Amino acid sequence: VRCFTQDDAHIYMTPEQIKDEIKGVIDLTDKMYKTFGFSYRVELSTKPENAMGSDEIWEKATKSLEEALIEKGIEYIVNEGDGAFYGPKIDFHLKDCIGRSWQCGTIQLDFVMPEKFDLFYISKSGEKERPVMLHRTILGSIERFIGILIENYAGAFPVWLAPVQVKLLPIADRHIEYGKNIMKELNKQNIRVELDENNEKIGAKIRRAELEKVPYMLIFGDKEIEEGSVSVRKRGEGDLGKTKLSKFTEDVLKEIKNKIIS
Question: pTM for the whole thing?
Answer without folding.
Answer: 0.84
